[in-house]
Amino acid sequence: MNDQELPKGGQPAADPFDPNTFKGTAIINGGTNLAGKEVKLLVFDMGHVFVDFVWDDVCKGFMARSNKTRDEFRQVLAHVATLGYEAGKITTADFLSELNKQLGTDISLEEFKVLWNHGFQENAEMAALLQALKQSRPLYLLSNTNEVHYRHLQDTYDVARHFQELILSYEVGFSKPDARIYHEVLRRSGLPAEHCLFVDDLAPNIHAAQTVGMQVIQFVGIDDLKQRLNALGIAC
Closest Cα to residue 140, out of 171, 203, 186, 88? Predict the structure, then answer.
């Protein structure tokens, strides 16, 4: 969930040191041909939607621990992002081993969990909205995340309570914006794409969902989200 997995082309979808990269213009439909299509399934991203964190603060913890500068740590992040931790290509133990190698540290698993999960918390207002929404239609979770982040959030906040299905990148073996992860939503739900509404904060993930035919809303805040859901006839 650190938004540092590298898509094809080698550039991160968002710069964790620049919060402005998480902002965008809200989009409401995958195209005018989807106008009026009934929303039968709501699909939500997790990080920066209903889970809050400041990635810069997480990075600062590792920088202090390793005595690395911002630029030095950015280079380490760029390297470890290629390992595919969030796509389940490497175990937590092996990921930490490589991170220690690159940082010149001896961070234990327990210390890693503390640093890696720093500041992660469920947004209470969004959690209440999810609980309200699930009364009228099923909710799925579609998240780029990793074992340590997800286990922390589940153990601490029971984030799974909101959702009928959990589609987690590290479990299914691929991550947004790979089209296969959206098709996993369709496979599990049995619904045509145009009846699924996807909510995410990052434009590349939104555009990928549009490509497979989903309706979409780019998340910029809870008030905007409620307005857009209401416009689709989904009471909030």
Answer: 186
Separation between Cα atoms, residue 138 and residue 41, nearest integer Å? 5
Work out whether strand 121-122 and strand 51-52 pair parallel, antiparallel, or are unpaired.
antiparallel
Per DSSP, 86 falls in state G
Residue 166 in tokens: 């959990």
Distance CA(221)–CA(209), nearest Å, equals 19
The helix (H) or strand (E) run that includes residue 234 is none
Under 8 Å between Cβ of 194 and 214: yes
**Domain-wise residue ranges, the chain:** 19-53+121-231, 55-116
pLDDT tens per residue, range 67-96: 999 999 999 999 999 999 999 999 999 999
What are the distances in angstroms from CA 57 to CA 52, 63, 176, 213? 12, 10, 24, 36
Domain topology for 19-53+121-231: Rossmann fold (3.40.50)
- Kindly report the number of other CB atoms within 10 A of residue 101's CB atom: 12
